[in-house]
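task queued by scheduler; priority normal; single chain, no ligands, no partner chains; default sampling; output format set to C-alpha cells
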Amino acid sequence: MKALFIGGTGTISSAVSELAVKQGVELTLLTRSGTGGPKGAEMLKGDIEDVDQIVSLLRGRTFDVVADFVAYTPEQAARDIELFHDKTEQYIYISSASAYQKPVTNYLITESTPLYNPYWQYSRDKIACEDLLMTAYRVSGFPVTIVRPSHTYGDRSVPVAIHGKKGSWQVLARLLEGKPVIVHGDGLSLWTFTHNTDFAKGFTGLMGNPHAIGQAVHITSDESLTWNAAFDAIGKALGVKPNLTHISSDLLAAFRPDLLGTLLGDKAHSVIFDNTKLKRLVPDYCATTRFDQGVKRTVEYVLSHPECQTPDPDFDAWCDKTIAAYSSCILNFC
C-alpha cells in the first residue's frame, strides 16, 4: 500500500506513521520542514497551502491512501478535493469528536449522534469540512473516510482539561509543588482518554478498507473515567496526592473566555463512545492501554525530557488568581 500523510509528526499522526511503516506501508510524509518522520518513510518538504508547489511535487504520483492531519477549515477541505480527486483511492479526513452535539442529549455517542456545537468555532469548522467532503462523495464519488478522534494523548504531554498556551507542564509543576489544581465542575463527569498507539491501530485498519469509503468513524478507547480519577492517576504517576479545586465550567469560561469551546463545547460533558462501528470495520481493533498505564508512561517521559517542561508563569498566575477569587466568593457567601 502506498500512502501520503499531510502532516504526520503530531501526537496522533506520529503514532499512525510509525505503525503504518511497521505494517509495510510505503509511506510518504509531506511536512513544512521535510523532517521528523519515522525511519523508512519518504519525507517531502512542502507547504500544503502552496497549491502550485504541491502540484509540482506530486506530479505523476498516485497513492492508495491520502490522509490530511492538518486540514481545519472548509477552504482547506475544498483544496484537498481539488488536489487529490484523481490521485488516491481513499482520502482520510481527521475531524473531531468535539463536533458531536453539545449540549449532549444522550451520554452514549455513536456516529449517528447529530453534529452540532454552538460553543466552539473549531468544531463548527470541522462539521463544515465533513459536510463538504461528504457532498463531494455523494456528487462525484470522492472517496472520503472521516475519522473523529476524541482526547488522544502520547508520550510528550499529559492530558488535562485546562492548561495555558504552553501546554500541560505547568499543571504537573503545580501538582509537584503541592499547589491547588483547577478541575472543572465537581470532577465527576465521565471522560474518555485514548492513547495514540491505540488510535493508530484503528486508523491503519481503516486505511485501504473499501467498507470505510463514505463513512464517518470515531476511534477511541472503551474506558471512561471521571476527571477526579484521572487526576488521581496523574498524581500517582508523579508520586503526589493531588490538591484539587473544583470550579464550575460556566464560571471558568467567564474568567477565561477561550475555555468556552474546550469546556462547554467539549470536556464539561459526560460522554461514552460506542466503538461498535469501528470494530465492525476493523474486527481486531481493541484499545489496550488503560489510562493509569498510559499516563504513567507519559509522566515518566516528560520528567526525563527537559524539553517537555516548558514553564508557563502566566497560566500559573491565572490559576492562583482564579482560585483566590473563587475561594473568596465561597467564604463571603458562607
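post-processing summary
- The mean pLDDT is 96.
- The chain has two domains: 2-152+193-219, 159-191+226-269+290-333.
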